[in-house]
Write a structure and sequence with these properties.
single chain, 325 residues, alpha/beta, Rossmann fold, 2 domains, 5-stranded parallel sheet, 4-stranded parallel sheet, disordered C terminus, binds phosphoric acid mono(formamide)ester, binds norvaline
């Protein structure tokens, strides 16, 4: 059984083969998912992940069934006798009918529980710590722009969130230079930095973290940002926004990068907050291609997982750094 919970659990070769399969299935669709049913369980809202992935599965002949998260997670309700059934029973039932679960949740631990209690593959559609499906589409986009072999500098400006983490992992696994610029309070912690250093050493890339957005964007090939306030953090708005003013990707900051550099954002974007209209609407903005690639790469992911091909565990998980579980 193959789960896809983090980028850390994937070998670069596996990722590249997912990309190759995605390209192949997108240009010549085949009903490789015929008879397969994927359960979507979303604790948080979604446009791109939900619609893009459902369309991808449909293109390949598979079906999607959306299950209300209340039906799966009711056992976690605090009030006695309001719970419908245990998570184990819910997941064991879903496992009898469906071939995989695509889940968007708050805690990464919830995904692990789904994996532990069910008998079918779990695919992470975003959690507070990781967004692997986004990172796969982002690297695929970068390869489309620069080719598979070129090593580039990817600068992420903003909050060290789920998108930043998975992007950094995948960038480093492919030997790129990844620079992160953000306020120290919302930057990567020492455990994460240690893990990134190991990835950089193992794959020949480089990771730099700084508070200086201008320094980090200088001469970059890609400038990436995401919301400063992720889903579930709305109550932190006032506190967080005090720190992020210097990290808006505006024309001045974007002009620090190479003239042909691209702008990336996973979306949804908050125009005028983390990015200005001039940058997101710039001719070098790739945001809509990223969104299209979410659909294309989902084809390779689900075809790989549901064709029962083995996704090898990453060697880099065997070290002291336990983050990518
Ligand atoms: N980028 C992304 O995951 O978008 P959604 O939240 O709309 O799925
Ligand atoms: N960091 C954002 C990504 C949304 C796709 C969030 O978690 O809300």
């Amino acid at each position: 059984m193959n789960h896809l919970l983090t980028i850390g659990s994937l070998e670069p070769e596996t990722i590249q083969s997912i990309f190759d399969l995605s390209e192949q299935l997108n240009s010549s669709p085949e009903p490789v998912l015929k008879g397969k049913n994927v359960a979507f369980v979303f604790e948080k809202p979604s446009l791109r992940t939900k619609v893009g992935t459902e369309v991808a599965i449909n293109h390949l002949g598979g079906d999607v069934i959306e299950i209300s998260p209340d039906l799966i997670f009711s056992s976690s309700k605090a009030v006695p006798f309001t719970s419908r059934e245990s998570l184990k029973d819910a997941m064991m039932n879903v496992s009898q009918w469906c071939d995989a679960v695509f889940a968007r949740v708050y805690s990464h631990g919830t995904l692990k529980k789904l994996a532990d209690y069910g008998t079918i593959p779990i695919v992470n559609a975003l959690c507070n710590q990781h967004h692997p499906m986004q990172a796969l589409a982002d690297l695929y986009t970068i390869q489309q722009k620069f080719g598979k072999d070129e090593k580039v500098t990817i600068t992420y400006v903003g909050d060290a969130n789920n998108v930043a983490f998975s992007l950094t992992e995948i960038g480093l696994k492919f030997g790129h230079t990844v620079k992160f610029a953000g306020p120290s309070t919302y930057s990567f912690n020492s455990e994460q930095l240690g893990y990134f250093s190991l990835l950089a050493i193992e794959h020949g890339g480089e990771f730099i973290q700084t508070e200086d957005a201008h320094k980090a964007t200088y001469d970059a090939d890609v400038i990436y940002t995401d919301t400063f306030i992720s889903m579930g953090e709305e109550h932190l708005y006032d506190e967080k926004m005090k720190h992020f003013k210097p990290y808006q990707v505006n024309e001045k900051l974007f002009s620090q990068a190479k003239s042909e550099a691209g702008f990336m954002h996973c979306l949804p974007a908050h125009r005028g907050v983390e990015v200005t209209d001039e940058v997101i609407d710039h001719q070098n903005s790739w945001v809509y291609e990223q969104a299209k690639n979410r659909m294309i790469v989902s084809k390779g992911v689900f075809a790989t997982i549901l064709a029962d091909e083995h996704i090898p565990e990453s060697k880099s998980m065997n070290g002291a750094h336990k983050i990518p579980s």
